[in-house]
Structures are given as C-alpha cells and as structure tokens.
Backbone:
C-alpha cells in the first residue's frame, strides 16, 4: 500500500470533473419531474447530445459550438417525448423507455463515421491569477467552462424554483395539474418547456463525456450514466442542492476507489467498486428523512377535459 | 390505446413473418450474441468483422443475425432463446459471462449448435473457442519493460477471470525479465465496455506515475487519455486501434476470428460439426500482433519480433520456468512450461506482482 501515490489536489479536481455529466443530466430531470413529468429517456437524450456535440465540434472545430449543438440535439429529441406524452397522451414510462432505446440507436447511426476521430480540445477557463493560488487554485479554478456552467444551472434552478413566479407556476403544475389548469395556466406548454430544458441539460451532460472526459466517440459511451442521474433525482428528494451533493458524492467516490485500487489499498475491490452507489444512497436517504415527497402529479397524464 | 393496439398488431405480424421464414429454412442461419456495440473499436468490433467475413464467404447461402450490447447473465438467455426460436442453426456467444446461459439454452435446443468464446464448459452441441492472448501479452510486456522510465506500468483489468489474470502474469513476467525494477499497478473496473470509466482508470494510473498503460477492456478510451497525457505508451487491445498510432499506441493484439467462424459455419453446412475445444495463438493466426511503430527503439522492436517468431513456431512458451507463484511457492521448474489446464483456470499472480486478485 502506498497512499502517497494519491495526490489529493488532483483527486478532488478529478472528482469535480467526473461528476459533471451526472450533475447536468440530473438537474435537467429534476426540473422535468417538478413539472410533473417522468421522463425515463435521460440516457437516450444524453447519448444523442454526446453524438450531436461531437459531430458539430469536429466539423466546426469549436467545442463551444459543439456544446450548443448538444443542448439543441437533446432538446429536439425530448420534443418527441413531449409530443408523445403531452399531445398523444401516451404513457410516460413507456415513452421514456422508448426514447432511450431510440436515442441509443439514432446516436449509433449518426456516429458511424466518427469512430476514432479526435475532437477539438476545450481549454480550461482563463481565470488568470486565481488558478495559481496554491491548493484551492487547481481544485476550484482549473476547470473547463462546462463545470462552472453546471454549477450555475444548479444555483439558477434552485433560485428560480424557490423565489420566482415562474418557479411557483412550474411547481403548481407538478403538484396538481388540474388546479393549475383551473387557474388558467397552460399545463401542456409549461410541461413541454420543462421537458425541453431537461433534454438540453442531458445533451450537455452527454457532450461533456464525448468532448471532454473521454474524449472520443464510441457507441453506447454514456454506459448508464442517465439511469444514475434518474435515481439521483429521487434520492435527492427533488431538491437542487441535494442533487449537487449526490452527484459529487457519486463522482468523488468513483474516483477515490480507482485511486485506492491503484495505490494497492487492502480493501477488497468488490467493496470499493460498489461503494459509490451505496454511500450515495445512504447519505441521500438519511437527508430525505424530512418527509420530502414526490410532486403530486408526477407521471400522471393531463387532459384538459377531465 | 389505439397506438398500443397498433403496436401489438405489428408485433404479431412480424412474429408470423419470422415464423414463415423459419418454415422455409434453406439458408444456414448464424447468430451472434455480442457483449458490447459493434462500433466499440475493440473486442466486439473484431467479432463482427468475423461475422461479415462469413457473409462474404458464403454469400446467399447463409444469413447472419446479431444482437449487440447483451448484458452478461440471465438476460442473455432470452436473446439466445429468441435466436434459436427464429431458426438459427449456429450461435456464437462471444463473452465469458455468457458461459452458463449458453450451456442452459443449448440443453433446450439440442439441434442448434452453440459456440462459446473464452469459456471452459462444453456439451454435445456446445464448442468452446478462444485465442492465446497471453502470447501477445508477452510481447507487450517486453516492450513495456523496455520503454517505461518511471518503472510503473498501469494495467486496466476488466473482471478477475483466468483470461485476464493470464494476461497480467504474462505481461509482468516479460516486463520484469528485461527490467527487474518494474512495478505493475492493476485497477479492476468491473466492466468490459464503459469508455468513461476506462478513461478515468487510465487517468488515475497516469496520475500515479504510470507511463505505460495496458488495458484488458474493449474501448479506445484509455488510448485517448494517454494521448492527452502526452508521454504514455499504450497497446491496442483486441483490435488494432491504429488510429492512435504511431504514439501512444505502439503495437497491439489483434483477434482474428474470421477463419474460425468461416470454418465452423462450413462444418454446420456440411453436417460435419462436432463439439470441440479450440485454443489458438500467434502460430495459427488467431492472435495477430499489430505493427510495432517507430516510437519503439529499433533493437526493442527486433527483440519483440524475434519473440513473436519463436512463439509462432513453438520454440518458446511465454510461461516457461523457473517461475514462482506470488506467495513464493514454486510453480514451474527450470525449463518446464505451463500446461493448458493450469493456464485455463489460472487464478494466481506470479511472484513479483503486488496486490490481491479479487475473489
């Protein structure tokens, strides 16, 4: 065992970066679920965002444009889900699963000629002297712009849901869509917008994997991150800051266990491998002892005539 | 309601159509069960190349079907059952974790032939086949031992099964032979294919000082991570991964399944198929060594090629004594070579490797 092989500064920095895809996807899904819609298609939207972002970044040479394309790609795919569930009134669970399958297939098709290509690199954010501060500098100020964007989205979502009229309406739609409808709010329109926001965030998360974390395109490369994001929203009891905590815990312990393995720590590898899931679940379950509950209309189909 | 009714009708129609084709049954139908996507650039990619070679060889006389991304374990039984019900004559299941499911399903369909890759359980209608990847690992180990400057070699393991452990041992023996100070750091990722996790593992190994990365996982993500780090050597796994040559990828192990798949399909067509156990290496061509690039010093390259030739003609066995097990107990005496039985079930590290194999 040689713990000195682990550099804690690099470890924490890596943990923040590794958490970003889950964080982005989960915060998007949180907004969707607070509006009363259960979209199980996160994985499909992520992988579609990953491939759209990759293709556009390679063709334009600009990772920033790639990320915009990824958000658009995810949002466009989520429109399909919005059409099925809000217009055709299809079952949300089935439509979401179909969206995941469709997204995986579509992305494999789109990405066929992009296997083995290297995308343009996204530089670290130029924060100037801040990045030179010892210890804190590399941990907090040495990241790419998407990491900060993810944090901004979490803060923005929290503030919007808690303090603004728009947030109140969104929550009303999610808690009781009949009452919201009776008050004159356009339930379908609001839900469609929420679904598109969720799609855009998932797309960004996917592109973070294909453009920054891996960085290359491989079929099926999100490998289940979307499902973890979905579970995280539930365990975080639909609260933005808990989603952030959960994502950091999960990403952090994943990194930590790889580091411990590399350093030869004498804990059986099976325990290390399962630790991210267990620790995240335990912490969030303890936190949700305050009787938080799911949005009242979650997963229920809304039709104005009923 | 309407939509679901429509879908159900469509599903029924497809089912009937499938049944109708099965009735006719003139073409030989060959099924493939893949653990990853055919576009993984590694393991499954090469198996799919073998499938395409079968189609090319026999043209209209065969029909191939494949299902990708099949989870190891019980779910794969469903996929195999479906293939058998749809009239497959021969089914290749191409991952270690499909072993028990293959045996179970083969018992239910005695007229269908099954071929399971990298496993050790056989039946009257189940053959096993694998390649001696450890022969390629020996060459990689030699190059790794010569090229590492930090004397730390990182190894990304998938699952602690004999095939992977054999590879680690073979690489270590040959790295340590040319560089006694070399140290192996092994990280188990418990997946065959998860680019993000593989990239993370590679980055952790690099952060901990490794300047050579060997991988026993299927994607090219570790190659990308090494390329970004700049001064880290890698080897293509299962497929050539030539897109990362000449550096970081300096050589590779290539699995060439095409001749085997063609021969076995032919045997089914001729009615000469019998259950066998095939384990071929560099000699018969089932294991190929990808081009050793100029990033490798010329003398090291020459030694590696000499070793390849010696393994191919049988004059050198990568597991030749004297070798001890990790705990120091004697395994092979001077000049003794390991028998296939021990190799097939290998569950111990050789002396010099630190850490425990997860049990």
Residues:
């Amino acid at each position: 065992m040689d713990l000195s092989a682990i550099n804690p500064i690099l470890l924490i920095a890596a943990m923040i970066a590794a958490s970003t895809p889950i964080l982005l996807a989960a915060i998007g899904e949180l907004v969707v679920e607070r509006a009363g819609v259960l979209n199980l298609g996160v994985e499909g939207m992520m992988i579609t965002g990953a491939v759209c972002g990759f293709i556009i970044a390679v063709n334009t040479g600009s990772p920033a444009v790639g990320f915009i394309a990824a958000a658009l790609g995810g949002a466009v795919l989520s429109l399909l889900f919005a059409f099925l569930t809000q217009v055709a009134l299809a079952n949300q669970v089935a439509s979401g699963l179909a969206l995941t399958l469709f997204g995986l297939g579509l992305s494999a098709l789109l990405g066929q000629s992009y296997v083995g290509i290297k995308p343009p690199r996204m530089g670290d954010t130029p924060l100037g002297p801040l990045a030179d501060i010892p210890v804190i500098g590399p941990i907090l100020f040495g990241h790419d712009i998407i990491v900060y964007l993810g944090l901004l989205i979490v803060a923005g979502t929290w503030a919007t849901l808690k303090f603004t009229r728009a947030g109140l309406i969104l929550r009303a739609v999610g808690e009781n869509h009949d009452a919201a409808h009776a008050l004159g709010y356009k339930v379908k329109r609001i839900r469609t917008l929420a679904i598109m926001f969720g799609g855009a965030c998932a797309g960004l998360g996917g592109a973070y994997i294909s453009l920054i974390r891996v960085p290359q395109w491989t079929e099926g490369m999100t490998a289940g991150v979307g499902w973890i994001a979905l579970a995280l929203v539930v365990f975080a009891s639909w609260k933005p800051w808990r989603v952030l905590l959960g994502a950091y815990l999960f990403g952090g312990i994943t990194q930590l266990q790889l580091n411990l393995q590399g350093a030869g720590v004498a804990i059986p590898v099976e325990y290390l491998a399962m630790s991210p899931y267990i620790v995240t679940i335990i912490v969030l379950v303890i936190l949700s002892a305050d009787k938080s509950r799911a949005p009242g209309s979650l997963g229920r189909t809304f039709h104005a005539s009923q | 309601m309407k939509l679901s009714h429509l879908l159900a009708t469509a599903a029924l129609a497809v089912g009937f159509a499938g049944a109708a084709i099965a009735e006719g049954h003139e073409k030989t139908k060959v099924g493939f069960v893949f653990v990853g996507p055919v576009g993984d650039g590694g393991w499954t990619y090469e198996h799919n190349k073998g499938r395409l070679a079968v189609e090319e060889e026999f043209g209209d006389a065969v029909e191939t079907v494949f299902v990708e991304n099949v989870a190891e374990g019980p779910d794969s039984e469903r996929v195999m059952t479906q293939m058998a019900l749809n009239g497959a004559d021969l089914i290749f299941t191409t991952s270690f974790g499909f072993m028990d499911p293959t045996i179970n399903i083969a018992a239910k369909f005695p007229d269908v032939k099954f071929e399971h890759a990298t496993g050790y359980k056989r039946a009257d209608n189940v053959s096993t086949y694998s390649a001696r990847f450890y022969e390629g690992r020996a060459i990689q180990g030699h190059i790794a031992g010569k090229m590492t400057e930090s004397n730390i070699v990182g190894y990304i393991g998938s699952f602690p099964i004999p095939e992977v452990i054999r590879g680690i041992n073979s690489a270590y023996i040959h790295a340590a032979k040319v560089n006694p100070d070399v140290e192996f750091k092994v990280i188990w990722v418990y997946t065959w294919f998860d680019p993000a996790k593989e990239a993370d593992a590679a980055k952790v190994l690099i952060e901990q000082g490794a300047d050579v990365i060997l991988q026993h996982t299927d994607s090219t993500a570790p190659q990308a991570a090494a390329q970004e780090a700049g001064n880290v050597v890698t080897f293509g796994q299962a497929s050539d991964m030539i897109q990362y040559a000449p550096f970081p990828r300096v050589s590779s192990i290539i699995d060439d399944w095409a001749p085997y798949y063609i021969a076995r399909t032919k045997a089914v067509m001729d009615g000469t198929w019998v259950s066998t156990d095939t384990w071929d290496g560099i000699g018969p061509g089932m294991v190929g060594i990808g081009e050793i690039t100029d990033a490798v010093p010329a003398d090291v390259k020459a030694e590696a090629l000499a070793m390849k030739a010696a393994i191919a003609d049988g004059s050198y066995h990568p597991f030749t004594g004297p070798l001890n097990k990790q705990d120091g107990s004697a395994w092979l005496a001077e000049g003794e070579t390991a028998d296939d039985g021990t190799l097939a079930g290998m569950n111990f590290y050789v002396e010099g490797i630190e850490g425990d194999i997860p049990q």
